[in-house]
Amino acid sequence: MSEYSEYIIYGFEITLIYLFLVVVYKFVKGSTGDSALRGVAIIFTTLLIGIYLVADTLGLYRIEKLLEKVVDYLFIAVIVVFQPELRRGLSRLGQNRVFNRLLAPKDDVVPKIVASIFRLARGKTGALIAVERGVGLRNYVERGIEVDAMFTPELVDSIFYPGNPLHDGAIIMRGSRVVAAGCLFPLTENPDISKRLGTRHRAGIGLSEETDALVIVVSEETGKVSVALKGDLQQDLSRDQLEKALRENLGTVLPSVNTEPATVGRV
């Protein structure tokens, strides 16, 4: 390797080290370690120049080896001195949205859905819930109010409470999150649908005809629970039947991810 190539490699290595220090500095910027890191960076740069330029050029190999050892210990010193700042930086990195999505935990939300639905059914509180599957429900989200919250029975109760302005619409779920409320779904135009079914049921069937969403309907008149899927309506389901339908069509667990809303029709 020629002397010119060696200097190119030296320059490349120094550039990488500089970029590393820039990243570390962003972690400690504004903290008590801010000025200290700048001092360490100056010493570190000086040592690098001493190793790669002076000692190597003049053939001072003993000094070169000594400085290399100093650099090794300097890295350990940086870790010890800036431990709080590095911990804070790693914490920020762990809270990054990208990593949160990649490492999103799985949450078995099916029992929560079943419990919430039959709590509404006991009180004969009308409800319409669409769970997004393969087909996105983005078009319906715009007709509702964005929520973007984890599914809980308390949240569903508050949305469908008769005094809530959103209770006449539907909520949309993606994964284990409620992404929108007060949504509107298209009503089915199927002439074979029983005329005894109200607007909620027709909206649930209508959405299931246009998308592959699974739609749960709670009747305000009878408190009975129904599921609409692919244009078909299964009525008067028990707890076990509803849980079976959810697990067969949604999977065992639903991902806890930030999702995009779907639409439900007004009843």
Descriptive notes:
The chain folds into two domains: 3-95, no CATH class; 106-255, DNA integrity scanning protein, DisA, N-terminal domain (YojJ-like (1, 3-Layer(aba) Sandwich). Residues 255-267 have low confidence and may be disordered. It has a seven-stranded mixed beta sheet, with helices on both faces. Strands 1-9 form a two-stranded antiparallel ribbon. It has 267 residues and is α+β, with helices and mostly antiparallel strands. The chain starts with a helix and ends in a 12-residue tail after the last strand. Helix 1 packs antiparallel against helix 2 (34-58), helix 2 runs antiparallel to helix 3 (61-81) and helix 6 (110-122) runs parallel beside helix 8. It is built from ten helices and nine strands. The protein has helices at 3-28, 34-58, 61-81, 83-94, 97-102, 110-122, 138-141, 153-160, 199-210, 239-250; strands at 106-107, 127-131, 145-150, 170-174, 177-183, 214-218, 225-229, 232-234, 254-255.
- The CATH superfamily of the largest domain bears the name DNA integrity scanning protein, DisA, N-terminal domain
The CATH topology name of the largest domain reads YojJ-like (1
Number of domains: 2
Helix content: 40-55%
Strand content: 5-15%
List the quaternary state of the chains.
single chain
| Largest sheet: spatial strand order | 3-5-4-2-6-7-8
What is the N-to-C order of secondary-structure elements (H for helix, E for strand)? HHHHHEHEHEHEEHEEEHE
Query: Quick one: overall form?
Result: rod-shaped
How many angstroms does the end-to-end distance come to? 79 Å
Indicate the structural class.
alpha+beta
Uncertain runs are: 255-267
Top-tier CATH class of the largest domain: Alpha Beta
Radius of gyration computed on alpha carbons: 31 Å
The total of helices stands at 10
Mean pLDDT across every amino acid position: 76
CATH architecture of the largest domain: 3-Layer(aba) Sandwich
